[in-house]
Write a structure and sequence with these properties.
Length: 251
């Protein structure tokens, strides 16, 4: 674990190429808190991300300590009710409906169908991850439990809820993605890890009730932030496209 009392001096930060190759989505964090000054240092570095016309159409809500725990508790309770409803029989479902089912209230749909090419990549990534975790294909309980760890931020002590402007359409999302990538690289260069989580935008109320969200901004994802643990899952590196797969041939 890194000491975490201060960020690395500028002359010791790793190169962009090294960060791009070594960065991973962290799915198990050490419980050590991230100093507020270090969080601010990472966010300040990420503000150098490019954006359309320099409009920077994103805002960030930071939750740590008790606040993060409270949000996690609410998200976990909502997720568990949703899973209980999915696994219930017809009569129990009818009974549960009377008490209200936690339908997604997020600003964006986080549950979607992938086109065939992308679906193959998505499934291959999930298969490799579950195999590494020792979760078998038919073990629904273990899969649901692992999915639920999203709402505990994989143990991260800090989570950043990222909002983007609703007025610029796809270009706000494009700029926000560049900001999130910059944030992830800045964190990695300072010895921390991140995991961008669309799942954290599925239910927005636990976040929106605790922050004064600017008008016109929508919750697009959360980013878990902390020190990576030594668990093998943090070394998982799904296969990337080859250069040939990336490039579109001419006619």
């Amino acid at each position: 674990m890194q000491d975490g009392t201060a960020s690395k001096p500028a002359d010791t930060l790793i190169s962009v190429d090294a960060a791009l190759k070594a960065r991973r989505s962290i799915r198990d964090f050490d419980a050590a808190p991230v100093p507020e000054a270090l969080v601010e240092d990472i966010l300040t570095a990420a503000l150098n991300a490019p954006s359309w016309g320099n409009v920077q159409p994103y805002r960030v809500a930071v939750a740590s300590a008790t606040l993060a725990q409270d949000i996690s508790r609410d998200l976990m309770a909502t997720y568990e009710r949703a899973m209980a409803f999915r696994g219930a029989g017809l009569l129990k479902r009818l009974k549960m409906l009377r008490g209200g089912i936690p339908s997604p209230d997020g600003d964006f749909n986080t549950i979607m169908r992938y086109p065939p090419e992308l679906d193959a990549r998505y499934k291959a990534t999930g298969k490799g991850l579950y195999e590494l975790l020792g979760i078998k294909r038919g073990d629904r309980a273990a899969r649901d439990q692992q999915m639920g760890r999203n709402f505990a931020f994989f143990g991260a002590p800090t989570v950043l809820f990222v909002f983007c402007s609703a007025d610029l359409g796809a270009y706000a999302a494009l700029d926000t993605g560049a900001f999130i990538q910059s944030l992830a690289l800045a964190a990695h260069a300072r010895g921390l890890g991140t995991c961008a989580q669309a799942a954290l935008a599925t239910w927005a109320a636990p976040v929106k009730t605790r922050f004064d969200i600017p008008e016109g901004y929508k919750l697009i994802c959360g980013v878990a932030l902390g020190y990576p643990s030594a668990e093998p899952v943090n070394a998982y590196a799904p296969q990337r496209r080859t250069l040939d797969e990336l490039l579109i041939p001419g006619r």
